Amino acid sequence: xxxxxxxxxxxxxxxxxxxxxxxxxxxxxxxxxxxxxxxxxxxxxxxxxxxxxxxxxxxxxxxxxxxxxxxxxxxxxxxxxxxxxxxxxxxxxxxxxxxxxxxxxxxxxxxxxxxxxxxxxxxxxxxxxxxxxxxxxxxxxxxxxxxxxxxxxxxxxxxxxxxxxxxxxxxxxxxxxxxxxxxxxxxxxxxxxxxxxxxxxxxxxxxxxxxxxxxxxxxxxxxxxxxxxxxxxxxxxxxxxxxxxxxxxxxxxxxxxxxxxxxxxxxxxxxxxxxxxxx
Length: 279
Prior knowledge:
five-stranded parallel sheet; elongated; alpha/beta; Rossmann fold; about 280 residues
């Protein structure tokens, strides 16, 4: 489970509570000061400890927050942690248009100003990709999966070499653990960040398999809508859904080739589809 400390001005309390509820539903642990502090706590010590224990600090940016003394203190603590740990710690979350503090002005921010869902999708992609990497890091199980992939790739060398896969995802960089091994095995990869872009590519080009996320553009079932559009247009290809958390009891969505929440399983499903298409 990933975790995030939400640094904010009290005038942004309603937005922060909404964000915290959504993150909790997606199994991201949040730290919000008014919910965590108790009478008698040392304010600075409590906040400093929470920041150090959290994987990230979400800096809620608004005209009031950038003037807040406590937000400045929290950012200073978090940026020091970031520098000392040599990893990204502070995630700017733009709630209302404002002048972004110079210390984080060069960071890409999640923009909530026009559409909460768009900003939330960007934030969730970052938080879940980090948690995914931690969950599926180098360990015995991962090594076993890697060995299985390598053995299978050798048997399928003629099928994999020159095959083509379209990856459709708002944030294709979060799919590197799937894309990289496929490319290493000779698969040509093309990426699209929106349904319309993917449709245009599929209209003009042939792809053996499509790997699509499910939530896209703030729409929870956009992956399914995308597949149904390709079917209506007569350009559908075997489609594998890559999701953060696969609920097995719900089964495979209609018309999909498969669905998985583990990048090794996604690659294996792609191998299955390629065998069927090119074998």
